[in-house]
Amino acid sequence: MNAGKKYTLSEFIYWTRRHIYKLLILSTIPTILYFFGWKFLSITWVPVAMLGTAVAFIVGFKNNASYGRLWEARQIYGAIINDSRSFGVKVRDFLGGKTDSDVTAIFYRHFAWLTALRYQLRESRVWENMDQKNNIEYLNSYFSIPERETPLEEELKKYLSETEHSYLLSKKNRATQALALQSEMINSLHKKGKLSDFQQMQLQTNLSLFYEHQGKAERIKNFPYPRNFSSITTILLYAFVILVPYGLLKEFDGMGKGTFLEGCTIWLNIPFATMLTWVFVSLDLVGESSVNPFEGNANDVPITQISRTIEIDLRDMLDETDLPKPITPTNNIVM
Fold first, then answer.
1. Helices (H), 256-328
2. How far is residue 28 from each of residues 121, 177, 273, 320, measured CA to CA in Å?
C-alpha cells in the first residue's frame, strides 16, 4: 500500500513506460504512412469517439469493482485486528494471566495463524498481475514482498513447538489447521477445569470469527474479477487504442492549412494520440493494480504490516519487552 501523499508523475511514467513505447509505435506508423501519401488511412472521428465513450464506461465500471474488492479486503483485516485484540484479552484474563504458559502458547499460535494466512494470500494465481514486466520492474525498484524473501517454515518456527511446526507444514491449508489446534487446546483446558463453560464458548466464538474472516479473504483471493468483464474491457480498449491515431490524422493534417505550418501539423498526431490513449491505458492499469488486493502489488492491503501490528499489541499485553519492530514504509510503500 502506498503510504505517501500520492504517486508522482515520474512514477506513473516509469510504471507505464513499456505501454508508452507501444502507444508511440501505434501512433507513429499511420502518421508516417499518411504523410507519404496513404490518405485513405484516415477515418472519421465520430465512431472512434463513440467507442471511446463505451470504453470509458466499462473501464470506470471495472475500477469501481476493483476498489470494492480492495475495500472489502481492508475491512476483513480491520475486523481481524479488532477480534485479535478481543481474543487476546479474553485468553489472558480467563486463564492464568500474563505469565501463564498456556496463555503464551495460545498467543503465539495465533501469530502462527496470522503468518500462515498472509503467506497463503500472497501465493500467486494465474489471473493475477505481479508477473507482468511493469509490475516486476516497479517491485524491484521501489519495494519488496516479505513473504517472498523469508520461507514460511522459518517464520513459523518463531511461534510453534517443533511438533506443531512439523504438523502444520504437513497440511495443505495451514491457517485452517492452526485455528483447529487452538480449538483443540481450548477444549482441553475446559476439560481440565481451567475454563468455564461460558469462557470456552466465548473463545470458541472468537475462533469462529477468525474462520469467517479467513474464508472471506480466501473468497477474494480465489475468485477473480469475472473474466467476461475483464476480457471485453481489454478487447474494447485495444480496439480504441489502435483506432485513435487513424481518427486524428485528418484533424491534425487540416490544422495548418493556409498557414506556414501547412504539411507539418500532421506530426502532432504522434504526441497527442499517444497522450490520449495513455490516459485510457493508465486508467485500466490502475484498476488492474487493485483488483487482486492480496497479490503483493504496491496498492494491496498491507497484510504483513497489519499482522505485525497485531503481534506487537498482543505481546505487549503479556508485558514482553523484546517486541518486534513495526514495519515501516519503503519508498512510501508498506506491505
1. 269-288, 303-317
2. 43, 58, 9, 64
**Exposure of 147 in the CB half-sphere (CA atoms within 13 A):** 23
CB count in 10 Å sphere of residue 251: 16
Q: What percent of the chain has pLDDT over 90?
A: 58
Taking only the tens place, the pLDDT of each residue in 111-159 is: 999 999 999 999 998 888 888 887 887 778 788 888 889 999 999 999 9
Q: Which of 77-81, 119-123, 136-140, 286-290 shows the lowest mean pLDDT across its residues? A: 136-140
CB neighbour list of residue 284: distance below 8 Å, 6 or more residues apart: 59, 62, 233, 234, 237
Q: Which residues pair with 333 in a beta bridge?
A: 2, 330
The answer to whether residues 88 and 207 touch, using CB atoms and an 8 Å cutoff, is no
* Average pLDDT taken over every residue of the chain: 90
CA dihedral (168, 102, 93, 311) in degrees, to 10, reads -40
Sign of CA pseudo-dihedral 187, 190, 191, 192 = positive
Instruction: Specify the length of the chain in residues.
Output: 335
Cβ–Cβ under 8 Å, residues 193 and 209: no
Q: What is the mean pLDDT of residues 172-181?
A: 95
CA distances to 3, 39, 56, 216 from 63, rounded to whole Å, are 20, 38, 10, 21
